[in-house]
Amino acid sequence: MSHNVSIDTSNGDFSSVTPSDSVQRYVISAFAAITWYNAIELVVLCLTTFHRYQGCYFWSLFVTSVSLIPHCVGYLLFIFSFGISPYIPVSLIIPTWICIITGHSLVLWSRLHLLLQAPRLLRGLLYMIILDCIFLQIPTAVLLYGSLNDTPNFPEGYDIMERIQLVAFSVQEAILSGIYVLETIKMLRLRPERPRFIILTQLLVINIFILILDVAVVAIEYAGYYALQVMFKPVAYSIKLKLEYAILGRLVKIARGASASYDPDPLTPSARGFNVTASGYEDSGSNGAGVTVVRQVNSDPFIRRWSGQTHDSLGPC
Question: Which InterPro entries does the record associate with it (predicted)?
Fold first, then answer.
């Protein structure tokens, strides 16, 4: 495969990702710099915010954040071509891409425990994440490696699979965020008090913005700007991960209000199946000692294993 061709906007495969003008090169470089800055900040936040490094929520956040750095390195090595074998950057891109996409979905799935009391639905959503990883990411990786040697039908197959998986994972994240938004709207309707209303409205706006970022990634891909899309995607994910900490902060506010006194209202976290503890963020994270945290008690053993829940330390939500 030639590594010195210009972008063909009608084709989304890896044979056409070298930018042909300086403007695109500057934009791609800027995207990489933004992603690296956000990723380093995310790693620091993750290591300093959480008191105990365990649970699905922590590890999915941490792995996804770390993966952004080598992911951008791989794309830059491939797009700008430094005379190295294309297999080297692609070998960086593939595993980190899997970690970013599936890792972020697990982040969204983990925090659904805060609002959703439906073990069967949570189990089904987890199955969806696992199956999408197997049936979408593995074939895409195989087709990508095959297209590097101009193997017949592999570039065309990768072009098709790239678009399918991009839309499919956007739909997957839309489903996870959409369920969260619907549950938030339910709480808004049932708890009209202004402090809670403001917090829940902020959560709703943040999740809607996350959905908009997914739409933007798909739109850039289908507009034919493949090189820009592959570099904008890490930027979008780094922004979405930073918004996770904004969401986490607002959930702490809800937890603080709920734990101040006994509230018989069935919509309080304790009545919805959560434990409120004053011991700080054991699994979910904390900005300081003595901060209350909401954690779900889920009796489903499958959910408990995946979310990192144990008898001594209930899982992250």
Answer: DUF7703
Q: How far apart are CA 22 and CA 1, in angstroms?
A: 23
In this prediction, what percent of the chain has a pLDDT beyond 90?
A: 40
Give one DSSP letter per residue of 5-25, joined into a string: PPP-TT--SGGG-S--SHHHH
104-116 pLDDT, tens digit each: 999 999 988 877 8
* 182-234 residue pLDDT tens: 887 787 777 667 777 777 788 888 888 888 998 999 999 888 888 888 899 99
DSSP state of 52: S
Domain spans of the chain, in order of start? 18-307
The secondary structure of residue 50, as a DSSP letter, is -
How does DSSP assign 163-190, residue by residue? Answer: HHHHHHHHHHHHHHHHHHHHHHHHHHHH
Token pair in block for residue 57: 């929520």
CA dist list (Å): 287 to 25, 43, 170, 292, 317: 39, 15, 31, 10, 16
SS3 of residue 128 by DSSP? helix
- pLDDT at residue 276 greater than cutoff 70: no
